[in-house]
């Protein structure tokens, strides 16, 4: 994830795009469950009567299993244009900038941080001339 | 409508690829054992040669060739753990590698970046590494953070440890270092992990960081690879032994032949690890792809890489070992 040019060049935008692709692939490898609940024969038999499945309890119950990309835009062309018509790379760039600016990873405790720095410093004094 | 409870109903869980039959996997294994026993592997480190020799391998000191009898390779496959925990700094990010479980990681390690502000193609810096760590911490698709770029603005002698400090500070997921190349660096890196885990013992129980090391294709364990494999085994830090054979370049152009070169290198490294310390945590790795003979490049987006990576995962499952393969 995040790499271009046979492992030579890193791209933050590419990582954000790959994150979406990986999330989709993770859905794929879960496969298709075949159970009474998922076959939903009861409501399939009502198809002539209900016409569509939009308002079924079953739909609400299982809709979260649907894939939902963050960055890949599934809107219609018109809706996409209305939002500014930004291509995937532009959206990825904005998202990467936003996260790098705002995301705060869980910090190391002060003591641990100091120990890590001391280990690097000791090596530096030993190995780097001057 | 009430339907009766099913008494015995077999279900297929998940979706995967079927690459080989059991016969083919056994054949790939036998062919690899033949190579390790008959041609052997080049080992460019005295201590590693001594370890192989003291366990019954034939060592040609002049040519630096070690011939490994099949029973030693088979024993190493059995003594290596089938499960490796890649612990997160935060336990909610713990990843268990075993069986058919899949996790995803960043691709390492680049030496250039595309600048996020200017789009310019330039050398990677420690700030780029920190930014990629922050981004990976936030991405739900990233399970383990593999070092993304080399901090080329750092002094080369301590570039590896500076990279470790940057990554361990800026990402709370498990960190996989791809650029540790000496015994001393393994020790210092382990100490960093132990500082985070709380103690050396706790670091062995819940390793918050691990190491990747590559043999040189074809069929060579470099001095650096030997040092890292031996010291990782002694300290008990997970070591990913990852072959980068190239079909048509450093391995036969046929994919099956490439798999044999890959397998011999990785099993040779795993044998060294297990002869050093039985039960040492290892990962069976591959970043093996084709060598494009018309362009002299190693494309990692090629279908061959996908096939080889899937085949490597199958071989690892056949050996009951955790695996790590390159994607994009």
**What's the helix-strand series of chain A?**
EEHHHHHHHH
Oligomer: heterodimer
State the CATH class of chain B.
Answer: Alpha Beta
**Which structural class do the helices and strands of chain A define?**
mainly alpha
Q: Given the structure, what is the number of helices of chain A?
A: 8
**Rg calculated over all Cα atoms of chain B:** 20 Å
Treating each run of at least 4 consecutive H or I residues as one helix, how many helices of chain B? 10
Q: What's the β-strand tally of chain A? A: 2
Mean pLDDT of chain B: 96
Beta-strand content of chain B: 15-25%
Strand order within the widest beta sheet of chain B:
8-9-10-12-14-16
Could you state the order of secondary-structure elements of chain B as H and E? HEHEEHEEEEHEHEHHEEHEEHEEHE
Q: Identify the most extensive interface between protein chains.
A: A-B, 54 and 66 residues
Give the overall shape of chain B, derived from the CA principal axes.
globular
Helix content of chain A: 55-70%
Widest sheet: strand ordering of chain A = 1-2
Radius of gyration of chain A: 24 Å
What is the global morphology of chain A? elongated
Tell me what you see in this structure.
The complex is a heterodimer of chains A (130) and B (328). Chain A is mainly α. Chain A has one domain (3-74, 85-127). Chain A has eight helices and two strands. Chain A has helices spanning 12-28, 36-39, 41-44, 47-50, 57-62, 77-82, 88-102, 110-127, and strands at 3-4, 9-10. Chain A has a two-stranded antiparallel sheet. The mean pLDDT of chain A is 96. Chain B is of the alpha/beta class. Chain B has one domain: Trimethylamine methyltransferase-like (TIM Barrel, Alpha-Beta Barrel). Chain B is 41% helix and 16% strand. Chain B has a six-stranded parallel sheet with strand order 8-9-10-12-14-16. Chain B has a four-stranded mixed sheet with strand order 2-3-1-11. Chain B has a two-stranded antiparallel sheet with strand order 4-5. In chain B, strand 2 and strand 3 form a beta hairpin. In chain B, helix 1 packs across helix 9 (255-276). The interface between A and B is large, with 54 and 66 residues.
